[in-house]
């Protein structure tokens, strides 16, 4: 573990948020970076950058901790953040940071129009919006008139550090290349200062120890979060399987009900057929009786003796002695 952390410390550059924070605490570096990000503001001086300043919008609200926070001589507020990993919440995250920063821009009793401007700046080691841009500048606009920007004093700026588009000016590109550890022009004064400052940070034993402790904590936290996510995933899978089981059970019940209905319908049809057969058999029996009686009567009218009639009827209709007796008893 110690060897792993030692190598991690040695390899860490500006893309590491801890190193970035310590480097950006340098007044001259922070001022120059802001000038390169916002050249049109002509920033002359800033307050000493504050590392990990914490704000809470409300007593019971989630606190936000800025990586680098400062203001300039015009009262503009700047929050500079390094985002190492994409947690897919960048838009909501920016909104909360901007809210916290903007709260500082309103003095009690001051008219709204005199509120200071607020800039939230994110350096992302990924494309924050997956749109292929190297720089994203966000303002509010009117949906029906997209080109109409709302001047509310809030500006969000996000840099896609890995991008190779070179859409920014050369000076800004040099800073992005430093973060991405790409080849940079060694004569750039900011590049020189950055390299010197990184070396100073790496030699600081206190910061090195703090980095190690924080790394261990972050790895433990990441492991805990991973276990929590795994547990949540298992719960979701269990719920999904339970839901699928319930659906299968409902489907089985429906099929069972359908089967019962089909059996009932089959039984009803069978009963109807049996009744029809019985009716037909009854009718045949009645017809046979009529024929037999008519035959007996006809033979009697021909003066045929009873013995011959009995014999003739018995053989012709295959009747038992009892049935023959019944016919002649009538």
Structure, explained:
- By secondary structure, this protein is of the alpha+beta class.
- Helices cover 56% and strands 14% of the residues.
- Helix 7 packs antiparallel against helix 8 (306-317).
- It is rod-shaped and about 145 Å long.
- The termini are far apart.
- The model has no long low-confidence stretch (mean pLDDT 87).
For this entry, give a set of tags.
single chain; 330 residues; two-stranded antiparallel sheet; 9 helices; 10 strands; 56% helix
Topology:
Blueprint: H1 2-11, H2 17-24, H3 27-37, E1 50-51, E2 54-56, E3 63-65, E4 68-71, E5 77-83, H4 90-103, E6 118-124, E7 135-138, E8 140-142, E9 145-150, E10 154-160, H5 170-179, H6 189-203, H7 205-301, H8 306-317, H9 321-329
Parallel strand pairs: 5-6, 6-10
Antiparallel strand pairs: 1-4, 2-3, 4-5, 7-10, 8-9
Produce a short descriptive summary.
The chain has helices at residues 2-11, 17-24, 27-37, 90-103, 170-179, 189-203, 205-301, 306-317, 321-329, and strands spanning 50-51, 54-56, 63-65, 68-71, 77-83, 118-124, 135-138, 140-142, 145-150, 154-160.
What gross morphology would you assign? rod-shaped
**Distinct helical segment count:** 9
Count of beta strands: 10
Strand content: 5-15%
What distance lies between the first and last C-alpha atoms, to the nearest angstrom? 117 Å
Low-confidence stretches: none
Indicate the mean pLDDT: 87
Which strands sit side by side, in order, in the main sheet?
Answer: 1-4-5-6-10-7
Radius of gyration: 47 Å
Which H/E pattern describes the elements?
HHHEEEEEHEEEEEHHHHH
Largest sheet: 6 strands, mixed
